[in-house]
Each structure stands twice: as structure tokens, then as C-alpha cells.
Write a structure and sequence with these properties.
The protein has a five-stranded parallel sheet, sandwiched between helices. It has 116 residues and is an alpha/beta fold. The longest helix is centred in the last third of the chain and has 14 residues. The radius of gyration is 13 Å and the shape is globular. The chain has one domain: Rossmann fold. α1 packs parallel to α5 and α2 runs parallel beside α3. The protein has five helices and five strands.
Length: 116
């Protein structure tokens, strides 16, 4: 299973890679929305994780692009600081499969990656 991780946060990358490795999954991380979409097209992807803290991320565009170009879109999870209520709400409205706070993300990381 491939996990696409859209973030620049090295701590997030490290934690996701550790969990994915234990579960036999590979992680492809990028800070570019367009690169994330290209990765979803290029290889079978079960899970796309988007860090809403990424300033350049347009979550609406990301979800629309992935769903438009990938035959079987991956599960899309967006996470961000709980105080960024507008960004979290925008991710929900964009159609992300799950939108959670950063704390919830780390607390549930094993289950999220395991569920793909």
C-alpha cells in the first residue's frame, strides 16, 4: 500500500513513515499539491494525507483534482491544528473522507494508516 503525504513538517513525515513501515506500506511525501495528484495517478494509492498547516495547500482543488483524475480515488484525510476551524471546515466541505485535529491525527495514526 502507498500512502501519499502532503506536508513539509519533518516530524509528521517521520511519524507517518514509522507507522507505515511497521504496516508494510510505503510513504511518498511531497509539499506540492500537483505532485501529490501526480503520485496518486502514478501508483495505486490507498491513502492521501493532507496537512492543513501547509500554507500553499488549496484543499478544495486537491480533492477535486484527485477525484477527477484517479479511477479509484484514495481515502483522503486532512488534519490541522484545532484552532484553524475555517481550514478544517473547508476540508470537510471539499469532500475529504476524514478531517481531524492534529492531536487526533497523531493519536489515531496507527488506525488511520492501517485502515488505508
Amino acid at each position: 500500500m502507498t500512502v501519499i503525504l502532503l506536508t513539509v513538517d519533518l516530524a509528521v513525515i517521520s511519524r507517518v513513515e514509522g507507522v507505515a513501515s511497521r504496516m508494510g506500506a510505503s510513504v511518498r511525501s511531497t509539499s506540492s499539491e500537483s505532485a501529490a495528484v501526480e503520485l496518486c495517478v502514478a501508483e495505486p494509492t490507498k491513502l492521501l494525507i493532507a496537512d492543513l498547516n501547509l500554507a500553499s495547500l488549496n484543499v478544495v482543488s486537491l480533492v477535486e483534482q484527485v477525484k477527477a483524475v484517479v479511477t479509484t480515488p484514495p481515502r483522503i484525510i486532512a488534519f490541522g491544528p484545532h484552532v484553524h476551524e475555517e481550514r478544517l471546515a473547508a476540508a470537510r466541505e471539499a469532500g475529504c473522507d476524514e478531517v481531524i485535529s492534529r492531536g487526533q491525527f497523531f493519536a489515531q495514526l496507527d488506525a488511520l494508516v492501517g485502515a488505508g
